[in-house]
Specification:
This protein has helices at 23-34, 47-52, 61-69, 74-79, 113-126, 176-179, 247-257, 260-263, 309-330, 334-361, 369-387, 389-400; strands at 11-13, 16-19, 39-42, 58-59, 81-83, 86-89, 94-97, 108-110, 130-132, 136-141, 149-153, 159-163, 166-169, 186-201, 210-213, 220-224, 230-236, 271-285, 288-289, 292-294, 300-301. By secondary structure, the protein is an alpha/beta fold. The chain has a domain at 12-80 and 111-188 and 281-353: FAD/NAD(P)-binding domain (3-Layer(bba) Sandwich). Helix 1 runs parallel beside helix 9 (309-330) and helix 11 crosses helix 12. It is globular and about 65 Å long. The structure holds flavin-adenine dinucleotide.
Length: 402
Amino acid sequence: MTDGHPTSAPDHLTDVVVLGAGPAGLLLANILLDHGIDCVVLERAGRAALATRARAGFLAAHTVRVLERHGLADGLHRRGQPHSTCEFRTEESRFRLDYGGLGQGEQHTVYPQQELVGDLLRRFLAAGGQVRFATEAMAIVDADTERPVVTAREPDGRPGRWRARYVAGCDGRHGAARRSLPAGTARHHRDHGVTWLGLLAEAPPSLDAVGYAVHERGFAGHMARTSEITRYYLQCAPGTPADAWSQERIWDELDRRMHAKAYGPLVRGPIVQRTVVDLASDVLEPLRHGTLFLAGDAAALISPSAAKGANLAVLEAELLARALTDALLHGDTEGLDTYSARCLTHIWRAQEFSHWMIGLLHGPPGTDGATRFHNNLRRARLHSLRTSRSQQDWFAEHYVGV
Ligand code: FAD
């Protein structure tokens, strides 16, 4: 037996085994296939589950350019919506920031992540790519050799073994890639002590901007997804179960925190999905162990406060695709050697901005002196953002950029 699997399981051979069919894995696999590199994607979920997994929605301008470069942007050009305004609401007032006209002059494209995943998947399969759905990678062994092996559980429960030149760990924060790293890998972790109820409402957006409401009862957020679906966030006490609040309580609380009486009612509709999101960040270092490379959430987890996760996943997947292509087609391994350091520069910048946003949007609970001090700092930060052009340019550059 090896890793709980009989050694007699036949080896499947390929150049690159990609773990995970999220944005990172599917973009990488598409680019490799375009270059004629043999690869297979192992995905734990079934195909139907991928089509309904609603998560990110705000694509940075860089992400759109990457997708365009590889001919993968038709869907988002057809159905995505340009977006370039934030509205901040506080107890005292509200202000709008048209970030599309600031900083580098870039904007977001609102396009639900499950639509993007659907586009990438269709294109990959149509080009002859192989995705093994309902196949769970269990471990990567021999990653410190030139012939790493992925052990997996196939859909019928039987063990499978995949032997490759390289393994791309794009299987998220709980995947096999992270588990297979050696003990010496650094994991920089930060739990922000803030919990959000992530909600999807079957209701049109209530405002034509991302809404960030800073309130003494906690943060509330509003983000359009489509003309019929809107994402809302409500800060709640850590440990709150996803189903603890009734629909009525959710809408009343959103109304209160978003100051609906003063600024107009929210369009209500059934809450069709709820997730509890504990805001946490972590970064693994390095993002390589021999012939195993990490990308996307497997490499670093970033709190959704600044909408960076899917955008970093796309950036890293393209860098990894280039590096693997150079290595496999031209024997040039420089891209692989510098991959981890290059990604970490982007990851830490995104973490820094995301951390800044968490400080802007949340205060500590309570009414003691330290809390009041923090809340006054937060007010000052919002005031700068409202009044200082250089602060607004800085915000715009970091908010849309990766
Ligand atoms: P994933 O999308 O997690 O894909 C990993 C895949 O690997 C999954 O399909 C999983 O089933 C599969 N897998 C896992 N384990 C295994 C295994 N052992 N074997 C085989 N397959 C496996 N980001 C933004 O940029 N903008 C936003 O607005 C935004 N909003 C968000 C809102 C919420 C509520 C959440 C939770 C996240 C949000 N994010 C946002 C973050 C974004 O969704 C992630 O960063 C993004 O999905 C990362 O892509 P990925 O390909 O690395 O990982």
